[in-house]
Amino acid sequence: MILFQLLTVFLVLNISLANDCVKRTYTADSFVCVCDADKCDTLDIQKTVEPGYIAIYDSDQKTARLDKTIVPVGQLKSRIDQTKSSQFTLNVNVTDLKQKIVGFGGCFTDGAVINIASLSNDLVKSLMYDYFGENGLEYNIGRVPVGASDSSTHAYSLDDTPFDFTLSHFALAEEDTKYRIPLLKVAKMLNPEFRAFASAWSSPTWMKTNHLFHTAGGLIWKPGDVYYKLWAQYYVKYLNAYLDQGVKFWGLTTENEPIEGTRGLPWGTLGMTPEDIRDFVKLDLGPALKAAGWGKDNLTIMINDDNTEDIESYSSTLLDDPEAAQYVKGIAYHWYTRNYPSSYQILSKVHDKYPDYFIFSSEAGNGGVASEHLGDWGRAESYAIDILEGLQHWSTGWTDWALAVDTAGGPNWAKNWVDATIVVNATAQEYYKNPMYYALAHFTKFLPIGSTRVGSSVVNAPANVHTTSFITPDNTLVLILLNMGNDQIDLTINGFAKVPVTTTLKPRSIRNMLIALN
Ligand SMILES: *[C@@H]1O[C@H](CO)[C@@H](O)[C@H](O)[C@H]1NC(C)=O
Ligand SMILES: *[C@@H]1O[C@H](CO)[C@@H](O)[C@H](O)[C@H]1NC(C)=O
Ligand SMILES: *[C@@H]1O[C@H](CO)[C@@H](O)[C@H](O)[C@H]1NC(C)=O
Fold it and tell me: What range(s) does the Glycosyl hydrolase family 30 beta sandwich domain occupy (predicted)?
């Protein structure tokens, strides 16, 4: 496998910058940008702005992808009669400091890393730059499935030898050693702030009540008993095996979608009720990790890692128990059963009750056969509104599902075909950057780790417009404005520049506005 050589190739190669998007339209309402061995667009973002100027970045359904305009503040001075009572106004309060950003990224599923490796070395490089590089999305988060997820060619665990109670047959898969680990190292090289967290879909089947990866089933017996202790040791072995290969995990979720496992899905699951997770963390996982050197200082444990429906019960059951809570730092959520605005209001409720634990989106993604959705602007909007409303309700970051799928939306052993931000066409040796890629850029490139949300309020906001406001570590004030409606919208902004400013949001668009503070 050529991937082994990639690490050294990366050190010596210069990628050419500032190519324009090569647009291609399929059946959807917008377009993709095509990357092949000759050409691939890059993102040219200036993160700081000279005093007296406002930087504007626009993307929209029709033509724009992070198009840049720099204007003197005076040019946007409010031209709207503010005495009109119906005027849409955004009030930003830069002294009202909220949560800090943890990061943004995507998932290194088996399917994703196999798809990436199906490209030529030059294209692997280009795709990794697109996600992790300075002129790409600058992702600083990677999620890693422990063993198979549905985005794998087959179901497996890392110890499928029945009744191996010493875990002596535990071993990383070829997917780990051949594909994923080299790519995780590339990500880290491209972005030194890159951090990975792991999540397991299912334990080995011999530890489970149903003896299957899929359908409803959990670990045999109960927390504190032998199977739960073994499952905790399996995590320790996993973290240490990656460490031996040069990848140190930053975080771990207690497992992927514990409630779904109690209901059963056609792919790997492991059912655990809120009480099971609480007792597993308290009696088995927490102590095992701590004893192995993976205490709270070394590893960020996140709970829930499931949709928002049951996030309140998983959070309160565990965090109200100090013995279990001592091991936990964050609360992770998925987007699948979301409703606007109720699912986001639940995040605020959880934050208000447990303000010391960060809230973080650990999975989101659109379904369907990928080739049927190429260039879909609605999917860019679905990402943008989920990220934006999450941030407005105390989330600290966001994680995309598979980094790359093939044109069918696979591979996927459970035939759970999905869409992705980047779709790989190995036959043509090209890949497609969907509108979602550029929607993500409005957040990932402008909100580095440690950016702080600031309070804002809206008056007479149209239902289709959503906004969030942040201050970056280098003291730039960033507004992100999403217009999902078909009409252009005039907006007056107070508390951004020294004077009220007016801007017009294009139909079906995302606009970032930046200004230097002080
Ligand atoms: C801005 O936020 C600060 C800190 O929360 C608060 O004290 C102040 O009243 C706010 N200003 C306005 C105009 O709401
Ligand atoms: C965890 O941190 C401690 C001290 O902070 C260190 O001695 C230990 O080696 C670390 N363990 C791992 C697995 O990195
Ligand atoms: C992938 O490439 C093949 C070969 O060039 C082509 O026939 C096919 O249409 C491409 N698929 C998409 C979705 O563009």
Answer: 450-511
